[in-house]
C-alpha cells in the first residue's frame, strides 16, 4: 500500500472518518469495540431525519458511524468487532440557503 506524503498540508487537530458496513451493529458511543493505531475520542452513529405523514419528525439510525481520532494523522484502517475496515475522511456537507443562495444557513434560518 502506498503512503501519501502530507508534508506542507495543514491538518485539523481532530479528524472525523466514516465507513459503511452492514455488519456494524454496535451500540452508539461504544469505542471499546474499535481497535486502531490512533486513539479514538468519540464514536457516533449517523442518522436520517424523516418527516412522517402527520408532520412529526424522527431520527432513524444509518448503517454508518463517525469515528473521531485524536491527533492529525489519518489511520489507514480500523478493526471493529474483529472486522477490518478502511478509513475515509468525513467531509461535512455544505449547507446552502435556497432563498438568498448564501452558504452557512438553511432557508428556515434565513434573515433576508
Structural notes for this entry:
The protein has no helices and 7 strands. It is mainly β and 112 residues long. The chain has a 4-stranded antiparallel beta sheet with strand order 3-4-1-7, with no helix packed on it. The radius of gyration is 18 Å and the shape is flat. The termini are far apart.
List the helices and strands and how they pair.
Blueprint: E1 14-20, E2 34-35, E3 40-51, E4 57-70, E5 77-80, E6 83-86, E7 88-89
Antiparallel strand pairs: 1-4, 1-7, 2-5, 3-4, 5-6
The secondary-structure class comes to mainly beta
Q: Report the radius of gyration as a whole number of Å.
A: 18 Å
Q: Quick one: biggest sheet?
A: 4 strands, antiparallel
Please trace the helix and strand order, writing H or E for each element.
Answer: EEEEEEE
What portion of the residues fall into strands of 2 or more residues?
35-45%
Number of helices: 0
Residue-averaged pLDDT: 72
Distance between the termini: 51 Å
Provide a brief overview of the structure.
By secondary structure, the protein is mainly β.
Can you tag this structure with a few keywords?
four-stranded antiparallel beta sheet, mainly beta, CCHC-type domain-containing protein, 112 residues, nucleic acid binding
Amino acid at each position: 500500500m502506498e503512503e501519501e506524503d502530507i508534508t506542507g498540508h495543514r491538518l485539523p487537530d481532530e479528524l472525523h472518518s466514516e465507513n459503511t458496513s452492514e455488519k456494524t451493529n454496535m451500540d452508539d458511543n461504544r469505542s471499546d469495540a474499535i481497535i486502531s493505531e490512533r486513539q479514538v475520542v468519540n464514536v457516533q452513529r449517523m442518522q436520517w431525519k424523516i418527516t412522517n405523514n402527520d408532520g412529526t419528525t424522527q431520527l432513524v439510525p444509518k448503517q454508518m458511524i463517525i469515528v473521531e481520532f485524536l491527533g492529525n494523522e489519518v489511520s489507514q484502517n480500523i478493526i471493529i468487532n474483529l472486522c477490518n475496515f478502511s478509513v475515509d475522511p468525513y467531509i461535512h456537507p455544505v449547507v446552502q440557503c435556497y432563498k438568498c443562495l448564501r452558504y452557512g444557513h438553511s432557508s428556515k434560518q434565513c434573515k433576508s
